[in-house]
Amino acid sequence: MNKIAVIGTGYVGLVTGLGFAKLGHFVHFVDFDQEKINKLQNQVLPFYEPGLREIFLDKEVIKRVSYSSEYSANLTESEVVFICVQTPQKDGQVTNPNFLYDALTSVKKFIKESTVICIKSTFPPTLLEEVEMKNLDVSNLIFNPEFLREGSAIFDFNNPNRILIGGSNQENLNFLANLYKNFDSEIIITDSTTALLIKYLSNAYLPMRLSFVNEALQIGDSLGADIPTLLKGIGADNRIGKDYFRPSPGWGGSCFPKDTKALEVMLSDKDLNSPLLNAINLSNKEHIEWISEKIIDLSTSNSKKGVVLYGASFKENTDDLRDSPTIELQKILMSKAKKVSIFDEFNVGLENSINNIKEVNSSLVVLMYPTEDMQSIIQILQRNKNIIYIPWENRIL
Ligand code: NAD
């Protein structure tokens, strides 16, 4: 069993670190957010992720983990340090790498020469030269881009579609491959640039597919097509596939919007036109506008005074509100003089939230995404005869 350090206790860091601790490794977490560390030390999770609490409170796991807000000699013991800090997108710039640079600089003060530094954060390959210029020893760094999905992150940690490891130091690459050897997944080992680009292009392909479905919804709706059959008919082609192929009011979340915008900057830096990749964000923006018009038409034609957006986040089973399409849609609808409330199971109980809202009977209810509990939501909504609902899975608009 190895001694592991994890820098950053967000969705990626905490899931990765606790995942390794559950497998028997010893894990020391560092996060400069004192409030988060206080919570973790008091056995409180800073965010919701299904199944994480059980691992976090597992008696054996508790014995193998420690949390600190300080970089300290504890890191000296670590054989590998996973850097899992945020890499937010900044307008007009490829990304803000400063959290990562600060973490690297701090880690290097305490680790041994043999310690492997492995970056899980999503990081643009175009910044590798800058890392080198900052004397952060890029030739020894290992990149291990993360693909976990919020809402099923524990499952994804244990069953990744692939494990991607990039770098040039053979000893460090072997160490990482060995750490993952018991996972039943293909390990793809490559150079740093390829590994980092795989992450960005994967995070472009997935929302591009979602935007395709949303544009298919628009043309299908305009021509009066039977939308579920339309999408089923397209997805039935094995080359297209039915997975990840359902419409929504728009995509969002902590990764797709920022990573596709960062990719746009990379393309422009390299003087590439790439009309397809450059249109992914635009398509989503226009789709949310289109949905807002549909909602206004529906609520007006049914004499509804307000709109209730059901589900605050970008998908079910997470409380992460970063770049939530619900919040974007609420802003747009409010700018068009609509009264809009958002309800979410993390804020109020599911049944109560619907039944307790006074204005709900006079509102148009929009389910923002299909949820596991779709049937019970539909039953609750159907009991209230005055409510119109838009279930994404069964019947669209
Ligand atoms: P997050 O914002 O939830 O967590 C990042 C944590 O790092 C925060 O708690 C912050 O306080 C801490 N931190 C920042 N700088 C620090 C420093 N110098 N020292 C110590 N702690 C520091 O971020 P996240 O969602 O876990 O994402 C982390 C990275 O992984 C990002 O690059 C993201 O793009 C990528 N990623 C995220 C997901 C996801 O679903 N959230 C999936 C795949 C990849």
Tell me what you see in this structure:
The protein is an alpha/beta fold and 397 residues long. The chain has two domains: 3-190, NAD(P)-binding Rossmann-like Domain (Rossmann fold); 201-396, Rossmann fold, CATH 3.40.50. 43% of the residues lie in helices and 13% in strands. The protein is built from 16 helices and twelve strands. The chain has helices at 11-22, 34-41, 52-56, 59-64, 98-108, 128-133, 153-158, 170-179, 192-222, 227-235, 256-269, 275-278, 280-301, 325-335, 350-356, 374-383; strands at residues 3-7, 26-30, 65-68, 80-83, 116-119, 142-143, 162-167, 186-190, 306-310, 339-343, 363-367, 388-389. The strands form two sheets. The chain has an eight-stranded mixed beta sheet, sandwiched between helices. Strands 10-9-11-12 form a four-stranded parallel beta sheet, with helices on both faces. Helix 8 links the parallel strand 7 and strand 8 (186-190). Helix 9 packs across helix 11 (256-269) and helix 13 packs across helix 14 (325-335). The termini are far apart. Residues 348-352 have low confidence and may be disordered. The chain binds nicotinamide-adenine-dinucleotide.
